[in-house]
Write a structure and sequence with these properties.
seven-stranded parallel beta sheet; about 30% helix; alpha/beta
């Protein structure tokens, strides 16, 4: 039996573990699922004869090294900052490594040694990053193989609530880490390129500069710009492209509503609110409003946000119970962002029967034989339940499939890498279709830009 060691049995590991266990007899696999919580590891392995749940503290170097030494290959589903010690151990014990996380500088620094030892350290092979890379490079490579020149690439992705579970005014529920949603877009201006001109959107304007997208069968969406759309320009070989933009998908109206929090200052994570543990929700929002001897908190909120009481934006705030004087924050030394996260988590938690949804949308503009053309590629994935969510499926399955391809010698290029080579993306995308992760590619009229408008 070939032993696959999996670090982390959290939400993103459910579909990964189920896939590998389903292949375990024919592929002669044994899974060791290591997590700080033995109960969680047991829940994910479900007494399968080809799996061993293991209680393991990743900071216990002896336990970690022993587990890696006994593995055929290693998967880390832990937070990104915890990968590096695992990677160093994998180098020492000559083990391949697969993660869904962005390649850090520390991980990239191991590239030469990984190549020297003929080891594959595959990263960024989840959803975003991951499926976005593979589905994009598939079309880009096809365009280039025909002699086409890339002019435009736009890529959008979002984790949303499925239509049948969409029952609040925000058309949104947390399907992944709430903190990442609250802090989205912070840390500098969004940067992209349109018609050869660099463009920047400051955080204060980010949620009022959106693009609209239509997905057949699912209606209209909007997208706000990611912080750095140019990160993969050279990686994708698009250094000379005229338009390059990456964004996050939400339902139409979300960004305008979210902008209220931004303008009030409620998404700020840089300072602590004094007495936060004794603060009510009403006091929390009032702390961002000017003093007035007679106006209520509600009136002051509408005045500062310039919204009327019959505006849907006002109804969205009321739905969150933000003005309740009896609901308490109960978080000591909390930042505004931490308090907002707590409030939203109560209103936007997935119910037991709720399902999530992943939407991905690419636009490829190119010139071929003197004619400008465009391909739109769209993918929608609906989760099964609260365990096997669309997010868990789209993050975990590419990791699992890649691991098996590496183990079986189908992926052979060594080094620290992301999945942009044909030997990686072609078989993975093909197999993902069996699990409902299907991209529909459509030729549409080329949507270029008027440079004078930008």
């Amino acid at each position: 039996m070939r032993n696959i060691l999996i670090f982390g049995a959290g939400r993103s590991a459910s579909s990964l573990i189920r896939y590998l266990l389903s292949k375990s007899n024919e592929e002669k696999l044994h899974l060791t699922v290591a997590d700080l919580s033995l109960d969680l590891a047991k829940a994910k392995t479900q007494n399968h004869p080809n799996a061993t749940p293991l209680a393991l503290d990743i900071f216990n170097a002896d336990e970690r090294r022993k587990a890696i030494a006994n593995a055929s290959t290693v998967i880390s589903m832990l937070p990104a900052h915890l990968h590096i010690e695992i990677a160093k151990d994998c180098l020492e014990f000559k083990k391949n490594l697969v993660t869904a996380s962005y390649i850090s500088d520390a991980m990239q620094a191991l590239n030469e040694e990984a190549i020297k030892n003929n080891l594959i350290f595959m990263n960024e092979i989840g959803l975003d990053p991951g499926i976005d890379h593979m589905s994009a490079m598939k079309v880009i490579d096809e365009i280039r193989s025909k002699g086409g020149k890339m002019l435009l690439f736009e890529s959008f992705c979002g984790g949303l609530v499925a239509p049948e579970s969409d029952n609040n005014l925000w058309n949104y529920k947390f399907t992944w880490a709430p903190r990442n949603v609250v802090l989205a877009g912070q840390g500098g201006a969004a940067k992209f390129i349109q018609e050869g001109t660099y463009k920047y959107i400051p955080y204060s304007a980010l949620f009022r500069r959106t693009e609209f997208l239509e997905v057949e069968g699912y209606g209209k969406f909007e997208a706000y710009s990611n912080r750095d759309s140019l990160k993969y320009r050279s990686v994708y070989g698009l250094d000379n492209i005229l338009t390059l933009y990456r964004g996050t998908i939400r339902r139409v109206g979300f960004s305008r509503a979210w902008n209220m929090f931004v303008q009030l200052g409620m998404t700020d994570d840089s300072y602590i609110l004094e007495g936060s543990e004794n603060m009510s929700y009403r006091q929390f929002i009032n702390s961002f409003l000017p003093y007035h001897p007679t106006d209520s908190v509600e009136i002051k909120t509408r005045l500062i946000l310039k919204i009327d009481q019959d505006d849907i934006m006002w109804d969205k705030l009321l739905e969150l119970d933000l003005f309740n004087p009896h609901k308490m924050v109960n978080l000591p030394n909390a930042t505004p962002a931490q308090i907002l996260e707590k409030i939203l988590s109560e209103s936007w938690a997935l119910e037991p029967d709720d399902k999530d949804m992943i939407v991905m949308y690419h636009k490829f503009g190119y010139e071929l034989n003197g004619e400008k053309k465009q391909i739109d590629s769209k993918m929608v994935c609906i989760g099964d339940d609260q365990t096997y969510t669309a997010m868990a499926k789209t993050v975990g399955l590419p990791v699992a499939i890649a691991t098996l391809l590496i183990l079986n010698g189908k992926i052979t290029t060594p080094g620290v890498q992301l999945p942009i080579k044909k030997e990686v993306y072609e078989p993975i995308l093909k197999e993902l279709e069996e699990y409902g992760v299907i991209f529909n590619e459509q030729k549409v009229p080329y949507f270029g830009y008027n440079p004078d408008l930008f």
